[in-house]
Structure formats: C-alpha cells, structure tokens
Amino acid sequence: MSDTIEQVPTALIGAEATLLAPVLRLIDAHPDLALSIRAAIEQRLREADLPPLVPVQITDDGETYAGVRCPWCGTDVENSESLAVLDTSDRLTTIAADEFDHDHRSISPDYDGREDYDGLCYVHEGCGHPVALPTGWTEGG
To answer: Has this prediction a pTM greater than 0.85?
Structure first.
C-alpha cells in the first residue's frame, strides 16, 4: 500500500468527452432528473448479472492455497489485493435552524446518524471490469 496520493485527471478526453457531453448538459439543465437517473443507474448495477469471481486452488512454490480469479482477465485477484468495493451510502440530513450561521455564511449539518454502507458492485482494479462475488459468497461485516 502506498501513501502517495495520485492526481486524478479532471478533464474528459476524446470519446469520453463526446459521450458524456449530453449527459453533463442534462445535469446542468435538470439536476432533479439527474438524481432520478443516478438512482436508476445504481439500481441497475445492483441487479446486473455480473460474472462472478472464480474460486481456484493455486499452487506456488510447492504450496497450495485457495484463491479467486477474475473471470475477465484470469488474474489471481485475492493475492494481488486488487478487488475494490464500489459502495454508496446516501442519506438526507435535515439542517436545523441553529445549524445555519448567517454571520459566517455557512451551515453545519449533523452527520452523526451514519447509515450502513452497501456494496454497489465489485471492481477488479487490475483490469477495471466489474465482477460479482463467487456463487454462495456474501459480504460480511
């Protein structure tokens, strides 16, 4: 694991810009519709039939151990530590009257009521493809 924070490019390039330009215009013109579309995309991802990681027996230097492989690229995902969970936790937090600070032009919402996070999908960072857990596996806490 690295302590280095990598710069993330913010400008869209090439095909991304062409594909996303109408979406960005829609968000600017209809932010309420954009929120509905976002919810629909999240629901569709949750219901997507993604290929599951494949449980395998791996032999390395004479030792055999359990592992999981990416169905897209065949990489040993578990031992390369490259499985990411894309999660989301949305909540609506009401801002009380005493949380408005007109003198400093700020608000101070109380976020103490944390919601449980819920995995949206898994991504094999090695190849960037979305995957599901192997059949019969669950996400524990």
So the answer is: no
Residues 122, 132: contact at Cβ < 8 Å? Answer: yes
Local structure of 96: helix, strand or coil: coil
Distance CA 121, CA 87 (A): 7
Amino acid in position 56: V
Do β-strands 129-131 and 54-60 pair in parallel, antiparallel, or remain unpaired?
A: unpaired
Decide if pLDDT at 33 tops 80.
yes
Whether the pLDDT of residue 2 is over 50: the answer is: no
Give the CA distances from residue 75 to residues 54, 58, 66, 93, in Å, rounded to whole numbers and listed in that order. Answer: 10, 11, 14, 42
What SS3 class is residue 95? coil
Residue 132: Cβ within 10 Å count: 15
Neighbouring C-beta atoms of residue 106, cutoff 10 Å? 9
